[in-house]
Amino acid sequence: MNPPPQTTRISTRSTVKKLCENPSASSKIPFRPRKIRKLTANFPVDNAIKSPQPSLTTIPKSLSTKSEIDLALNHLRTSDPLLATVISTHPPPKLSPCKSPFLSLSKSILFQQLATKAANSIYSRFISLCGNESNVLPNTVLSLTPQKLREIGVSARKASYLHDLCDKFSTGVLSGTSILTMDDETLFQMLTAVKGIGPWSVHMFMIFSLHRPDVLPVGDLGVRKGVQFLYGLKELPKPLQMEQICEKWRPYRSVGSWYMWRLVEAKTKGNGNAQSDEAEQNEGF
Known about the structure:
This protein has 285 residues and is mainly alpha-helical. It is built from 14 helices and no strands. Helix 12 (221-231) crosses helix 14. It is globular, with a radius of gyration of 20 Å. Keywords: DNA damage, DNA repair.
């Protein structure tokens, strides 16, 4: 697709800037659930004994095939001419399979707030303790005492996070099957109830491990910078502004976000310190 005329670009940027001049209070929910999807039940997460069992109609689609990626790219090119120019200069996303939800979540906890090299070193020692990646299971990790975990560089706090995750799986609050079949909003609520797993970690897990198509990580610095670059904004957009600006990407905001990371990388090429949060993730696209 050829780039749109310059007048179209100016009009789009102008509209976005006007939108950002008078933002209302920040959104309390990091992303909106799709209108066609409803929760199967309302329940207090803290008191849940078993994961909710959604019906087949609530199982979310995933970016698991090239045809689905192609649909996403066609939608984004049509709905956002400025994003279309970014898509035309970068190859499409490539998917990597998720080995197991529990493994991915454990790895997310271990990598938090660490440089990539240090995190990889600790993760390698963690895998050795467990035996191999396929043996990273709730019962296995639960058998590792905080002292054993501290010996390989895992802090006491992260050890408690790992054990809380294990408890959630062991008691049936979470399971690999339920994680794969929960709708986005329920999954967000259930995972943020795990100690040490916050909104950003859940968004990265949903995008890179589960390949959910419509996740907008409004708190990710790289995505925010990308939106700022794309629309020529003077300041980083806030969460509610992000939702408003990126509404046109729905239902493929995950792919739009992926291109924001690529845009930031292109803009900051050669600056070794200018890495997006997503650069710390090594799963998914």
